[in-house]
Design brief:
There is one protein chain. The chain has three domains: about 45-300, Rossmann fold; about 320-395, no CATH class; about 400-470, no CATH class. It is built from 22 helices and twelve strands. The chain has helices spanning about 10-15, 20-40, 45-60, 65-75, 90-100, 115, 120-125, 135-145, 160-170, 185-200, 225-230, 250-265, 320, 325-330, 340-350, 355, 370-375, 380-395, 400-410, 415-435, 445-450, 460-470, and strands at about 80-85, 105-110, 130-135, 205, 210, 215-220, 235-240, 245, 270-275, 290-295, 440, 455. The radius of gyration is 25 Å and the shape is globular. Pfam families: Fer4_8, LUD_dom, LutB_C. It comes from Sneathiella chinensis.
Length: about 475
């Protein structure tokens, strides 16, 4: 996937002016957030489960080599194969070799952020192998030739009218001549078109929500059942997953699943939870004849033992972006790489480089809602501050920005001077505003005053009020 994080500011401005995008994003503000709150309230032990989930992930990360090797032993014992890949290119080549060995011409795919990370679709197509997305959201954006804009709802940025246009354009070859607008009928169209592709696919590729060391199993959760068809109908099943998806036991996976769906969609459990352990056995009615797990590092082991390790707890629920006011305003594509929202702002600088993604850690108001709802308690604001500090230390970004921070630091380290300066600034701004009580234009604040007035300070400064509060013994 092409990286465009460097253009975040321009992309964000374009996104905020896109009326269709704003209409689509408004649904997230109520649908996902309300559902998550209701689901959490209905489970008395939800907060305790979050603590347990974080502990499980921390334990795994502290013993990652052990559990990964144990997982490989179990997969091999069940007749499967594990491919260790350090880079995206190694993972792509591993998948390609498996597909070549299977004489694959078409590949069905379940939803997978890791295959997005390694740009697998484009790569397979360049090698003469047709990838077919089977998740409805992924199918929609594949038709639109766009990347996902959300971790669990890849087409959440699309309005119903836009989906209607896409289906009308691409489904006429399958006999659908009328422009259909009814959502249920649109789903029926997609189901009919994809049904034949499931049956004729040579290879099925899925991601994995969890890898279970205890049994060598992989787990996927879906709401459409497409993952089951993708991994059970073709003769070869490939699981593409990153190292940190490993969990020690079935019980640990169960604990994580109890917070996953509730955090993601507000469900107690996803409609389909599927465990795969090796290829088809002698007495099995169906299933793949070949089972492969492609394990990607992709820079993750470099994060172990650093300030970024807590990011590897992430179980890709999307709750942080569902509750993020910045994501609501600019959508997922503005972030310029695979992972959008707060998790993308914290993870992408590591994955694509801080020089490329320097804007993303600044795309936050630090309201803390992301950390508040994260099922594994990732301290995202702390990590975003870490990246801001790194940007400043490495002198990345415009010199005026660094000067501004240096000047602020100068005053912040001298409380008496800070108080005098803020008091003077408040008085000056009040004088500029005059009787209107607002300022229409102000140097060094055009990012604000270009679209709204700046309210003039009223009354005393915070420090003055605090001093009075203490003096009066309140």
């Amino acid at each position: 996937m092409q990286v465009t994080s460097r253009k975040f500011k321009e992309s964000a401005h374009e996104a905020m002016a896109d009326e269709d995008l704003r209409a689509a994003m408004n649904r997230i503000r109520t649908a996902f957030t309300t559902a998550r709150a209701d689901a959490a309230a209905e489970l008395p032990e939800f907060e305790s489960l979050r603590d347990q989930a974080a502990e499980i992930k921390d334990h795994v990360l502290d013993n990652l080599d052990y559990y990964l090797e144990y997982f490989e032993q179990k997969v091999v014992a069940e007749g499967g194969h594990v491919h260790w890949c350090s880079t995206a290119e190694e993972a792509r080549q591993a998948v390609l070799k498996i597909c070549r060995d299977a004489n694959a011409r078409t590949v069905t795919k379940g939803k997978s952020m890791i295959t997005e990370e390694i740009a697998l679709n484009k790569f397979l197509a360049s090698e003469g192998i047709e990838p077919i997305e089977t998740d409805l959201g992924e199918y929609i954006i594949q038709l639109a030739d766009e990347p996902p804009s959300h971790i669990i709802g890849p087409a959440v940025h699309k309005t119903r009218e836009q989906v209607t246009d896409l289906f009308h354009e691409h489904h006429q070859q399958y006999g659908y001549q009328d422009r259909e607008e009814d959502p249920e009928k649109l789903v029926g169209e997609a189901r009919t078109v994809l049904r034949h592709k499931y049956v004729t696919a040579d290879v099925g590729i899925t991601g994995a929500n969890f890898l279970i060391a205890e049994t060598g199993s992989t787990v996927i959760v879906t709401n459409e059942g497409n993952g089951d068809l993708t991994q059970s109908l073709p003769k070869t099943h490939i699981v593409v997953a990153s190292l940190e998806k490993i969990v020690p036991t079935l019980e640990d996976a169960s604990t994580l699943m109890r917070v996953l769906a509730r955090s993601a969609t507000g469900q107690e459990m996803s409609v389909y939870t599927t465990f795969s352990t090796g290829p088809k056995r002698k007495d099995d009615i169906d299933g793949p004849e070949n089972f492969h797990v492609v394990l990607l590092d992709g820079g993750r082991t470099e994060m172990l033992g650093t300030e970024l390790q807590e990011l590897l707890r992430c179980i890709r629920c999307g709750a942080c972006m569902n509750h993020c006011p910045v994501y609501h305003a600019v959508g997922g594509h503005s972030y310029g790489w695979v992972y959008p929202g707060p998790i993308g702002a914290a993870l992408n600088p590591q994955m694509v480089g801080i020089e490329e993604a320097r804007h993303l850690p600044n795309a936050s108001s630090f309201c803390g809602r992301c950390e508040e709802v994260c099922p594994v308690r990732i301290p995202l604001p702390k990590i975003l501050r870490y990246w801001r500090e790194k940007t400043f230390e490495q002198q990345i970004g415009p010199q005026p920005d660094r000067w501004a921070i240096e000047w602020w630091g100068f005053f912040a380290k001298r409380p008496w001077l800070y108080r005098q300066t803020t008091r003077l600034a408040a008085r000056v701004l009040s004088m500029i505003a005059g009787d209107k009580g607002r300022i229409r234009s102000l140097p060094f604040a055009k990012g604000w005053t270009s679209v709204r007035d700046l309210p003039a300070p009223e009354g005393k400064t915070f420090m003055e009020q605090w001093k009075k509060h203490n003096r009066e013994g309140r």
